[in-house]
Amino acid sequence: MEYNQKQLSILEAAEKLFASHGFHATSVRDIAHEADVNIAMISYYFGSKEKLIEAIFLKRIIAWKMTLTEMLSNNGRSYVERFDALVETYVNRVMSNPCFNLMMIRAQIQEDIAVNELIHENKKEAYEVIKSFINEGQENGVFSGDVDIMMMVYTLVGTTNHVMSTRHHFQRMSNLEHLTDSQLQEYLISHTSNHLKNLFKAILIHEA
Amino acid sequence: MEYNQKQLSILEAAEKLFASHGFHATSVRDIAHEADVNIAMISYYFGSKEKLIEAIFLKRIIAWKMTLTEMLSNNGRSYVERFDALVETYVNRVMSNPCFNLMMIRAQIQEDIAVNELIHENKKEAYEVIKSFINEGQENGVFSGDVDIMMMVYTLVGTTNHVMSTRHHFQRMSNLEHLTDSQLQEYLISHTSNHLKNLFKAILIHEA
DNA sequence: TTGATTAAATTAAATGTTTGTTTAACTTTG
DNA sequence: CAAAGTTAAACAAACATTTAATTTAATCAA
User: Fold this and answer.
1) Which percentage of chain B shows pLDDT scores above 90?
2) How far from B208 is each of A35, A206, B41, B143, CA to CA, in Å?
3) ipTM of predicted complex
4) pLDDT digit string (tens) for A158-192?
5) Closest chain B residue to the Cα of A198, Cα to Cα
6) pTM of the model
7) Which ranges in chain A belong to alpha helices (H)?
8) Which nucleotide has the least CA–C1' distance to B41?
C-alpha cells in the first residue's frame, strides 16, 4: 500500500484521465504520457489497466470510511451539529476531488466493471453508519421520526454529485463565468451545503 | 428525421449499449450485432459512431422540450398541481428510460464529446421555462419568494438521476430483491416523486 | 405484364490505425 | 554482481471505417 513517487504520479494521472475521458477512452499510453513514465511501467507496477483502477478506488474508499465514522461518533457535539458536519464534509469532499468522484459516478453506472462490487459494499456500510446516527437522534427526540433516511441520503449524494459533475453548466447558467475554478469551487461548496442543510432541516427537525 | 425499421433498430441497440457500457467501450460491431444488421450499415446510414450518438440525443431532446412546455403552460390547473405534475412527469420519464438517461449523465460528465454543447443549450432552455413558472407562482403569492430555484432543479435532477443510475444498489440496500424490474421501477417512481414533492413543498409553500 | 435501367440497400473483405501487454536489452541501485 | 528499475521495440488483437461487389426495389418504356 506504500507507493513510490513514480507509482503516485501514475495513480494521479490515471485518476485525472479516467475522470475526464472515461476508463475505456483512456489508453495506457495516455496515462504514461501524462505521468511522464514509460508505458511498460504501468504493467510493471500495477499488472494491468484494471488493477490500476482498483488501486485508485481502494486508496480513496478506505480514507472516506475513516472520516465518516470519526465524524459521526464524536460525542462532544450535538446531533444537529454532527448532521451539519456530515453534509458539509461530504459536499466539501466531493467538490474538492472532482476527478475521483467522476470516476465513482461512472463506475456505478457501468455494470461490467470489476470495482462495482467493492463500491456497493462500501456504500452500504456508509449508509448503515448514517442510518444508525439518525435513528439514535430520533430516539433522543432530536430528529423527526417519519423521515425516509434512504431517500434523504440519495438526495444528499445525488444533488452533490450532479452539481459537481455539471459544475461548468452550473457556472454558465448562473452567470458566474468571471469566477476562477477555485472561487467557483468555494461558491459551490457553501451554496450546495447550505441548500441541503435547509432542505433536510425542513423535514428532519421537529417544529419548535 | 424519418427513420426506417433498420435505422430504428440501430438507434435502439446503440442506446442500450452506450448506456450500459459507455460510448467508447461500445464497438460498432457490438451495435451491428445487437441490431442484427451488417457493420457497414451504421456508416451507411449515420456516417459515423459520433453522428449516431448525436441522432439519438436529438430525437429525445426535442420530445422532452415539447412535453415540458405543454405541461407547465396548461392554465387549467393550479400552480401546485402543475408543480406536482412537473416532478412526477420528470421522475417518471427518467425512470422509464434508463438507457437514454444514463447516456445523458455520461455525456455531461465527459468533456470531449460533441453532443455536450447541444445538451447544455437544452438544459438552459428547460431551466428558463421552469424558472418562469416558479416566478409566476411567486408573483401570485403561491410559492415562497426566498427559494433558490437553480438548486431546487439540481436536487430534482440529481436525486432522480442518482436513484435511477444506482437502482440496483438501491434495490439491494432496501431489501427489495424479490421485486421484478418493472415492479422496482414502479416503486422507485412513486417513492422518489413523493419524497421530492414533500421536500420541495417544505421550502416552496407558505405556511398556512 | 414484361424486360431494361437505375438507384438504394446490403454484404464480405480489406484497410490502416490504435489498443493493452510483453519482451529482451539496458541502466541504476544496493 | 544480482536484483530492481527502465526502456524502445514488437506483438497480436480489436478498432472504426472504406471499398468494391452483389442483391433488392423501384421506375418506366414497350
Assistant:
1) 51
2) 60, 17, 62, 12
3) 0.84
4) 999 999 999 999 999 999 999 999 999 999 999 99
5) B203
6) 0.88
7) 5-21, 28-35, 40-46, 49-73, 79-96, 98-109, 116-139, 149-165, 167-173, 181-204
8) C10
